[in-house]
Amino acid sequence: MPITLKDVTFVYNPGTPMEVIALNTINLNFNEGIITGIIGPTGSGKSTLLMLLNGLLTPTRGNVVVDGLVTSKKANLKTIRQKVQLIFQYPEHQLFAETVFDELTFGPKNFGRELTEGQAAELLRQVGLDETYLKRSPFELSGGEKRRLAIASVLGISPKYLILDEPAAALDPVGKETIYRLLLSLKKQGVTVIIVSHNMEEVAYLCDQILVLDRGRIAAFGEKNEVFHKLMEKNIPGLSLPVYAQVIKLLQSRGHKVKMTASLEETVGEIIRVVRGDA
Ligand SMILES: Nc1ncnc2c1ncn2[C@@H]1O[C@H](COP(=O)(O)OP(=O)(O)OP(=O)(O)O)[C@@H](O)[C@H]1O
After folding, report:
1. Are both 223 and 263 inside the same structural domain?
2. One domain for residues 160 and 258
3. Same domain for 254 and 201
4. Which of 20, 21, 164, 195 is the pocket-test mutation for ligand 1 (most atoms within 8 Å of CB)?
5. What would the pLDDT profile of 202-219 be if each residue is shown by its tens digit?
6. 22 Cβ inside 6 Å of ligand 1
7. Is 12 in the pocket of ligand 1 (CB under 6 A)?
């Protein structure tokens, strides 16, 4: 069963002069086994939506339902938090334990699961580290290693849904690539991944479907290329297109019949067709 939002509205400080309608009558399903990207200009409601998905916030109106469990019912929260793990921006800032092993075992313990050293080492391997890290202090790791450790410590809880706010922010190209490989491999293992990102290249590379928020409402939702196609026409201030979509848009505006592609490589193919005069 997916995560479903039914007529969800979220208002900060309702009934006061500080009232803000952050999300307005949202209806959607986050389908399982794929990567969904949430994009939108600043203040469009992305972070609010993430916090609604694991019950950190509950809707002012409407319902968020995770595998049949309504988040606004307190009794459901522990199960929902195990299923839906939320990783905020810069999760490495929340590392606290003395050793990498303690860091990895803390979360699962809270959900009644004692990890062995072997299981902890397996989690490290999943994020491209190894068992030699187990006895080290998390604080002596590099920025990228800390980020991977923070993600590994959440994977120990075996979430069904993994939600990340800007997962690759401020990492160098190698660090970014490691996180991308990890997310794609988690998808292969059946984890449903949802990311918020301002980086359109990242969204184009990783995501199967995209949700576009604009001032608390859904501006577009669907398969990646359909959404980029829609965005070409809509032009939402504060939202750019990935380079390949910009190139296609430019070619189309000059009267060339080129199709919307899914990657830079295919876009190059379209350009070659134009240059050869096939289009
Ligand atoms: N704690 C809060 N109290 C009052 N208003 C808030 C609070 N948090 C967010 N808002 C407002 O709710 C709206 C949506 O904010 P949200 O943080 O969800 O947007 P966002 O799309 O994540 O933005 P960004 O891309 O800048 O992170 C904004 O108008 C914001 O000012």
Report:
1. no
2. no
3. no
4. 20
5. 999 999 999 999 999 999
6. yes
7. yes
The 10s digit of each residue's pLDDT in 230-277 is 888 888 888 888 888 888 888 888 888 888 777 778 888 888 888 887
Residue nearest to atom 25 of ligand 1 (CA): 42
Residue 217 falls inside a structural domain: yes
Residue 41 Cβ inside 6 Å of ligand 1? The answer reads: no
Report the predicted TM-score, pTM, of the whole model to 2 decimal places.
0.92
Q: Which domain holds residue 262?
A: 242-279
Number of other residues whose CB lies within 10 A of the CB of residue 131:
15
SS in 3 state form for 202-248? HHHHHCCEEEEEECCEEEEEEEHHHHHHHHHHHCCCCCCCCHHHHHH
Model confidence over 5-53: pLDDT tens digits?
Answer: 999 999 999 999 999 999 999 999 998 999 999 999 999 999 999 999 9
Q: Which residues of 187-218 are buried (b: 16+ CB within 10 A; e: fewer)?
A: beeebbbbbbbbbbebbbbbbebbbbbbebeb
Q: Residues 93, 39: one domain?
A: yes
What separation in Å is there between the alpha carbon of 191 and the centre of ligand 1? 27
Model ipTM value: 0.98
Is residue 43 lining ligand 1, measured as CB closer than 6 Å? Answer: yes
Taking the centre of ligand 1 as the mean of its atom positions, its distance from the CA of residue 59, in whole angstroms, is 15
Q: In this structure, are 57 and 123 located in the same domain?
A: yes
